[in-house]
Amino acid sequence: MKKARVLLLNPSFLPRATTTIFSSASQTRLLSHQMETKPSSDSSRYCYDPVLRWDPQVEDYFNKAYGADHFARISKALTRPSSYSCIRVNTVKTTSEAVIEKLTKILNESEDGSLKLVQSDGSSPISKCQIPGLDYVVFVRGSGPHRIEYGSGLESPPKEVLVSRKCAEAVLRGAQVYVPGVLACTAHVEKGDAVAVCVAMEQPGDDEGDWSVNMTRGTTLQGLPSDPFYCERSGLYIGMGTTMLSRAGMFRVPHGVAVDLSNRVFRLPSFYNVLEGEIFLQNLPSIVAAHALDPQKGERILDMCAAPGGKTTAIAILMNDEGEIVAADRSHNKVLDVQKLSAEMGLSCITTCKLDALKSVCLPNALSDSTTLANGDNIGSVTSHSALSSNEEMASGRSEAEKSSSTEQPNGGDNVSQAEIRKNKERLRNGRGRTQSQGGRAGKSQGFPPNSFDRVLLDAPCSALGLRPRLFAGLETVISLRNHGRYQRKMLDQAVQLVRVGGVLVYSTCTINPSENEAVVRYALDKYKFLSLAPQHPRIGGPGLIGRCEFPDGYVEELLKPGEEEMVQKFDPSSELDTIGFFIAKFSVGPKD
Ligand SMILES: C[S@@+](CC[C@H](N)C(=O)[O-])C[C@H]1O[C@@H](n2cnc3c(N)ncnc32)[C@H](O)[C@@H]1O
């Protein structure tokens, strides 16, 4: 496979990089270090130098796709958080300047002084994004990896708290160590003790592809080589902190902070619950995906896999909250999350519905057929889009008064089941029920007629192999990666039908897997001759991969053709942009016949 040219990026777009401190031991560490059985020296044990574990065939595939050196860099980058937090400002409510002022005050007043300390040159860690058109994006620079003094040279080893891999990934992003994430702890730990926090990583089981942590919660550690998985935990220390509970408390109480991790390998501010409704923490490529869609005021847009609503709300802000965005997701509870976010951000152009993207196209006659069915044996569970938007089922950020007075019925309003009409009349008379108080219910949609949207975003569910920090990747196999691609192609088949001629379709994923990115684009371009790749603005990601990949089982995967690679945006976690791995393709929809 031919590797595509790497686009050189202008680093001035980004917050200035902080000094990284890698020990020479960490640079030379062998890929197989987690499997070593010999006890390691103190300095290589008490440090953060994880190596991502992949299924061997997946690793082989990625090595071929990217080249071994490049993939090793990607794999390493995935184990670290990005060096900055990216904040999207809700310009409907506030401005970047106001947010920068408030965040500066919050950070200066914060009890955790670590963020102040990282700026050795006296500059602020907060800055406005310099990418043209993205001046409503604010970066907050973090720092790391820091070398932590664990006191390992002392006579007795440091007391330890062992946390689950998922807990560790959250902690690396700035979270605290919460009780449910704690798996094991040294004996006799009391509240207020200094502890080293390390990660319990999945280990290979007896069968191929079988991985597990294999440790009972509450296990006692001694800090000695006789501890379970002692060697395997080498190089997996994420910081030093103070216990907020005794050992017994950690395994007795259901929630709360277990360790106040004051000395971290990576220091990133946690903006949990900060400036709610005014800001949204979002990865830079996700913001760029909303721009790639290029939504215009007054348009009708479908976000097919919308939850939790990060891109939906980004699109709404780009439209200045004028037009209609239908935010769909398969999961009822996740649709509620979109409703909550839209309401919090004060956005009224977003309507939500529960919809399986694989069934999102509904032919006009099928629409009334299934509505008839719904009247009979499945009352109220299937409701057309028109019914939803006119009858409050499709919850939106619009005020109650506005919605109840709305007479707008885009499809003529003739697809509403009588049961739904009765139910809604009652609801309007009685006011919202308890579960409907803040978008407590997500209406189901049975789909939309072909060509009913100006633009469609398909931010597809994927293997998420671009998300970082990631400490383990062994569960995906070449077959599961291929299956993700198959699922995405089926969704794309639906999306293509829903965009009107002259409209735009954006396809995105947060994975580095070519089967879910370039191969899906190849499929779309080969199958739908009316699709063409369209230029994206801004274009700050790198090029896609061209060529083909042949697998040992004979499966052949076609990727992009020469000339197409510069039309997509591939965000490489190992590049200077220091983002998650992400992929964006934008298609123009030409005449369909
Ligand atoms: C990558 S996430 C979307 C993230 C979202 N676009 C954002 O920016 O906040 C993928 C979403 O697809 C949803 N999903 C998975 N399968 C689906 C299906 N068949 N139909 C609709 N949604 C689906 C998941 O529930 C998940 O919320």
Automatic annotation (TrEMBL):
The keyword Glycosyltransferase does not apply. The keyword RNA-binding applies. SUPFAM superfamilies: PUA domain-like, S-adenosyl-L-methionine-dependent methyltransferases. GO terms for biological process: RNA methylation. Residues 384-450 are annotated as: Disordered. Keywords: Methyltransferase, RNA-binding, S-adenosyl-L-methionine, Transferase. This is rRNA (Cytosine-C(5))-methyltransferase NOP2C-like. It comes from Raphanus sativus (Radish). The lineage of its organism: Eukaryota, Viridiplantae, Streptophyta, Embryophyta, Tracheophyta.
